[in-house]
Amino acid sequence: MKVLVVDDEPQIRRALRTSLEAHGYTVETVGTGDEGVVAAAGQHPELILLDLGLPDMDGTEVITRVRAFSEVPIIVLSVREAQSDKVAALDAGADDYVTKPFGMEELLARSRAALRRKGAGEPDAPILTFGELQVDLAKQLVAIDGEQVHLTPTEYGLLEVLVTNPGKLLTHQWLLRRVWGQGYGTETTYLRTYVRALRRKLGDDAAAPALIVTEPGVGYRWVADAS
Amino acid sequence: MSAVATDRSEPRVDQVSVRALAIGLGAAVCGAILVALTRDLGPGAGVAIFMLAVTIAAVSGGIWAGIITALLSSVALPWIERPASGFEFEQLRDVIASVVFLAIAAVVGLVVGNAAAERRRATEREREARLLALLSSKLLTGDVPDRVLDEFVALLLDPFGLAMCTVQVVLDGHEMSAVARRDGVELGGPTEVLPVVIASVPLGTLSTERPARARSFTRRERELLEAATRQAAVALDRARLDARARLAQLDAETNELRAAMFSSVTHDLRTPLASIKAGVTSLLDVTTVHDATQQRELLTTILEETDRLNRLVGNILDLARIRAGALIPRRVPTDVQEVTEAVLARMRPQLERVRVELQIPEELPEIAADPMQLDQVLTNLIENAARHSPPGGAVRVHVSREGESVRVRVSDEGPGIPVAQREKVFEPFYRGREEPERPGSGLGLSIARAVVIAHGGRIWVDETGAPGTALVLELPIEEPAA
């Protein structure tokens, strides 16, 4: 499993190489955005860890260029002070972000989730099970503990997008376009209303979520693991 | 410039003489007409009437007008009283009477005219004194030098009938100026330029200009202007010294604060670094063998201290951004409930040792706020409450609508904050006296306050009705008009 690390800090490159190699990954590291795009095209990594603060170009620019030829999962590494850059990176096509300084276990968990999504493609089984929750993608049916839950078409559409992108941080804009259509993007109030309705019907507590986690100002993430 | 003023003052002297002549002539003619009309009343009446004319002329036109009237009256008196006289003796008597009358009238004119002039001078002196008193009361108010200059030029316009007044000085290397201009008045009249001297060093000039076709400055006016300028110079000097003193005091306060910040930051940064370094060098030491528990202990410490260091650096950066004025909220419709729940969800590991009670009304309007900044504020408040809570204590988060605002109240069951210190908790690096070594940078609440204020809201410490502290923040639902 090959991972490409794009970061201009040698210490971070060293720490990531050591830790990732210890977990059995093959690691390639580069220090600039340009090298990153070249390596992404030439070496076919299965995952890219991309620092947003690169010396030669904006990290978002790297994502846009890579997305022109590849759907490889990209996890952005950013500092907390660059909140808006983070949203821009996600909107440009990044799969997720991890805030620097991050714990290795968090980065590895996000990496695994991203790789799983890529490997999965279309879910093999049309029925996804998350504990007591069952989502039948073929019949568009949702049940808790065998009891059917009635969802409106929009609620179901939202749920489907969430469960088929597990672990991925989905931005407001992405969700609105995906569920409501291309003309949408800023109507976060709609989105919020439907997420709340969905949580209520699925019995998820927003203050202690088991299914949908809110990232204020950014978007939502489906956190339940399929069993 | 002053040469121009002197030239222009020449015609003025002529005008005054013409005026005295006119008044003198007028008074004499009026007197003569009156005497002619009242001839039947006897010779005494004529003398009395002419004397009255002399007095009036002296009062209104000055000494010379009085003397002119007296002269004309003495000539006219015998001729009007006895036009048909033909006796030598009578004529001689009339000449003697005229001379006596002239002498008396001249004395009366002189005395009355002098008294009138004296009164005019007294009125003028009083006006001058009032102006100088006004200047000193307006200028010596401990204002900054710029304001003193502005006041000064504005005050001169009226008393001196100026169209424009400009002052320019160089104080402590700074050039300063002030201009006052009367609207709708044409420039181009007589000008007067005076030096502004502070502590016998000329530091600038005062330029005055009257409206076009106005009369020149008299010597007295020039002297008064000089006196006013001297007074302004004194006020300016005092204002300068006051400003210097204030600056010095501010500097001292800033230095003190900076020193406190510096020692606090140094301590807070060094402490976790020391723990990390100690832990890592211990683990790297080949001469010591740690068992699994010891290793885990050391590594946990390193991790905790790294997080603490990270929080502190984040807070210091936030504070720096606040100080630099770079904390501008990116307002979007924000659901306070959603942000609050997200914060509680994320902080769950830290909140395990307390009981969290969340209370949010069903219908809560969205507010115009920056969701990430609101997230940070709520994180700081809840973190703070959890840190001060006894184990198992309740951390209550109550959200409510209060008029045009949404209120969030975060309370704990900790030791509470004495009333006197309730404002102090919002100062950077403040920490309760009884807990100097608790983790936390002492910056969370000052950052929270800065964010809330940037949103047009407010934050304060409130009673809980029991031991504990409540921090209350209120954010407007609509973005306040700029």
Assess the beta-strand content of chain A as a share of residues. Answer: 15-25%
Strand content of chain B: 5-15%
Principal-axes shape call of chain A: globular
Net shape of chain B: elongated
Share of helical residues of chain A: 40-55%
Strand order of the largest sheet of chain A: 2-1-3-4-5
Assembly state: heterodimer
In N-to-C order, the SSE pattern of chain B is HHHHHEEEEHHEHEEHEEHEE
Structural class of chain B: alpha+beta
If you had to describe this structure to a student in words, what would you say it looks like?
The complex is a heterodimer of chains A (227) and B (482). The mean pLDDT of chain A is 89. Chain A is α/β, with parallel strands linked by helices and 227 residues long. Chain A is built from 8 helices and 12 strands. Chain A is globular, with a radius of gyration of 18 Å. In chain A, strand 1 (2-6), helix 1 (10-22) and strand 2 (26-30) form a beta-alpha-beta unit. In chain A, strands 2-1-3-4-5 form a 5-stranded parallel beta sheet, with helices on both faces. A 4-stranded antiparallel beta sheet of chain A has the order 6-7-8-9, covered by helices on one side. Chain A has a 3-stranded antiparallel beta sheet with strand order 10-12-11. With 482 residues, chain B is of the alpha+beta class. In chain B, the strands form 3 sheets. Chain B has a 5-stranded mixed beta sheet with strand order 6-8-9-11-10. In chain B, helix 2 runs parallel beside helix 4, helix 3 runs antiparallel to helix 4 and helix 5 (145-157) runs antiparallel to helix 6 (219-284). Chain B is elongated. Classes of the chains: A alpha/beta (227), B alpha+beta (482). The interface between A and B is medium-sized, with 19 and 29 residues.
